[in-house]
Amino acid sequence: MEDRELKLASGFVVLFIVLLVLGVLIFATTGAILADRPALMWLIIPGFLAWIISLFGFIVNSPNQARVIQLFGKYVGTVKDVGFFYGNPFYFKIRVSLRIRTLETGVSTSEEIKDALGRVIRPASEQRSPLKVNDKEGTPIEISAVVVWKVTNAAMAVFQVDDFEEYVHIQADPALRNLASRYSYDAPEADQHSLRAHIEEVGTQLQRELHERMHPAGVEVLEARISYLAYATEIAAAMLQRQQAGAIIAARSRIVEGAVSMVEHALQMLAAKNVVDLDPERRAAMVSNLLVVLCGHAVPQPVLNTGTLHN
């Protein structure tokens, strides 16, 4: 549906005319009473009724606000200008906010509850529960996202869906669920399908999918970002152990690589300076001892040889 902008008359000019008409009606009523001519009241009373109906034509439009106008069920246009205006008193005006708004998936709100005396029994509260979905590999994860959106087509927002705000909240959850099913939670850096390591790409894909879903309601998605991401509770401990094992293996690999490099350098320096001439057996023993010292968890305890080199 095309959003047509509607231009209305200035409300201040019409207000002056309405007040002037009111003065004329009051003057005519006073004259009819003083002249004792009650028949004139049959003309004055409809004038008062028409004057009262004319008051419904005034429109005050605030910044970042639009008024979708209907006349007897037909769409007339949308008032986007800010100010005081006047239109047909029979216009049906629907106010639509054009402000930028934010929603977070998985957030449920409870309304305030009051007793018969108006006292608050339970205050309003928010409860956050991330969506539990399966990623590309079938691993259960918990995820939630923050979406920044605004209405860009007020007519579509009013006529295409029953409640565009509810529509936006409902569409956010399945879009996030569908996105999570196409990516793995964690993957090597070279893999472009990772929720944890490729936040920017995932956010861009989520924004694109949300825009496609919400465009029919006249809503534009300005930004979408993952706000919470974690393994599901039932597998979090196992996944933590796997990550710890991977980190330990990577650390030990670096330690061994460094130790081998240091041993090689030490043997080269001993040979270059002719400090000691080692046969293959003594060289192997020295390499073994150095690797134990460099790769061990605990501080090594030295053993002093008080005999000869071969004892």
Order of helices and strands: EHHEEEEEEEEEEEEHHHEHH
CATH top level class name of the largest domain: Alpha Beta
Number of E-state strands = 14
Q: Percent of residues in beta strands?
A: 15-25%
CATH topology of the largest domain: Tetrahydropterin Synthase, Chain A
Description:
- By secondary structure, this protein is α+β, with helices and mostly antiparallel strands.
- It has three domains: 9-97, no CATH class; 102-231, Band 7 domain (Tetrahydropterin Synthase, Chain A); 235-295.
- The chain is 43% helix and 24% strand.
- It is built from seven helices and 14 strands.
- The protein has helices at residues 11-34, 41-54, 154-159, 164-180, 199-214, 233-273, 280-295; strands at residues 9-10, 58-61, 65-71, 74-79, 83-86, 91-97, 101-104, 107-110, 113-114, 120-122, 125-128, 131-134, 140-151, 219-231.
- The strands form five sheets. Strands 7, 12, 13 and 14 form a four-stranded antiparallel beta sheet that branches. It has a three-stranded antiparallel beta sheet with strand order 1-5-2, covered by helices on one side. A three-stranded antiparallel beta sheet has the order 4-3-6.
- A hairpin with a 2-residue loop joins β3 and β4 (74-79).
- The longest helix is centred in the C-terminal third of the chain and has 41 residues, at 233-273.
- It is rod-shaped.
- The mean pLDDT is 80.
Condensed summary:
The strands form five sheets. Strands 7, 12, 13 and 14 form a four-stranded antiparallel beta sheet that branches. A three-stranded antiparallel beta sheet has the order 1-5-2, covered by helices on one side. The chain has a three-stranded antiparallel beta sheet with strand order 4-3-6. With 311 residues, it is α+β, with helices and mostly antiparallel strands.
